[in-house]
Amino acid sequence: MASFVQRCFTHNDNTQNDSNVIPYPFTIYPSSFPRNEYEKACKIQYGIHILVQYLAYDIDLMDSILKNLIECDPFIRRLRNIYNQIQQLPYKSIAETCIIRTDYMLQQMNIFRERTKLRLVEINTIAVGLGAAAKLIHKWHKRFLKRIHPELLSQLPKNESYDLIIDTLFKSWKIYNNSKAIILFIVPEHEFNIGDQMLIEKGLLSYGNSSLLIKHVTFIDICQYCSLDSKGILYFNDFEVALIYYRSAYDPKHFYNEDIWQAYIMLESSRAIKCPSLRYHLAGMKCFQLALAEKNFLEKIFQKHEQYIDDIRDILEEMFTIDQTINDSILQQRILDKPESFYLKQSREGGGNVYCGSSLREHIDKIIANKESNRYFLMSRIYPPINSSLIRSSRPNDKNEFIFEKQINGELGIFGSLISQNEIVIYERVGGSLLRSKPIINIEGGIASGQGFIDSVLLV
Hints:
Layout: E1 5-7, E2 21-23, E3 26-27, E4 31-33, H1 35-57, H2 59-72, H3 74-87, E5 96-108, E6 116-124, H4 131-148, H5 161-176, E7 182-186, H6 194-205, E8 214-217, H7 219-225, E9 226-228, E10 234-236, E11 239-246, H8 258-268, E12 273-275, H9 278-282, H10 287-292, H11 295-301, H12 307-314, E13 319-321, H13 322-327, H14 329-337, E14 342-346, H15 360-369, E15 376-380, E16 387-392, E17 403-421, E18 424-439, E19 453-455, E20 457-459
Parallel strand pairs: 4-20, 7-8, 7-11, 11-12
Antiparallel strand pairs: 1-2, 3-16, 5-6, 5-17, 9-10, 10-11, 13-15, 14-15, 16-17, 17-18, 18-19
């Protein structure tokens, strides 16, 4: 389980202190998951790719949905303006790459014949994490089952998440066609998810190309050491850059001054391949989930792949705009009667910022008062089935135990990737999964905070 670690920061210590490295929290054995729903998620991933690709390259369609968010969200507005700026350049990126993870939860149904149904949570197109860690925990669970329950080994599906990520990144680097050009991992200044990135770097270097060089850098480093020539070639010191792999740049907090914005613009203005490119980043905004509920939208996206229309529609949970909470008296009453039955989610990409329960009405009123209705939307809450599991935590419980039993539920992520040139997909792959489980009392299950656990699926 080498590199199965993350960096822990305390309130008093924001330094890169290696002594703060702790293991990822994980489940001792895998959690059960319905085989039919898992296979459906894998199948639908190809449809998700069509959706992301269509949105990324049909800017008019993207704008028709993003326009309301752009008006009230300065971060998205700045990104959209940078996209326009890039399109005016006399050169363009050699290719564009996107690693995607589509997250689902199981909704418990009242209908006896359909005990659970797959529900879409979000589509992630930037800084997709824990793919390498998922492969490691799969190996651990396989070893555990081999010793304790070998008869269950056939129910543990193959996990190619790690291979998908390193293959996609290496393919992108090769497409740049300069064996001396390097790869930049753009990471936050206080990065916790170091183990996952170390494994990806190790995987890329394992291809045996002795000339491949990888640098883990922050936007501050970009400001100090990067330059762009008149032909759009990006340099880090004297090294030409082939591939920019973002593990940052998805949160306004990453852009805390204008120098960082200018560093980002330099990267995006270069011919280097970006993972993801800005158009793929924008295609991952949560506001597009609302559009999926519109029949005409799905028919436009999947006009050449009609088989995905019903598949996509079938995984959607009930969703509402904030304006509907103002104008729909029945919905208002539902929120007042059962505020715990809804999630309040932000419309742009990124985890966190999910509200549920007694404070929901207060948050909605605040959003309306601040005229930020288009920055959020409501979604009916998902109640997944509960598993009892043995947990290896990164932090001790009240009894000073690191291994203890928990009632948990999980969120399944399915991995995929795209590389495109001139709007045409030249490389596509689907493979691998990540199950993140959390205590049933938690709305969210962050791995970094220790509230969630890296898990695997056991198909039943």
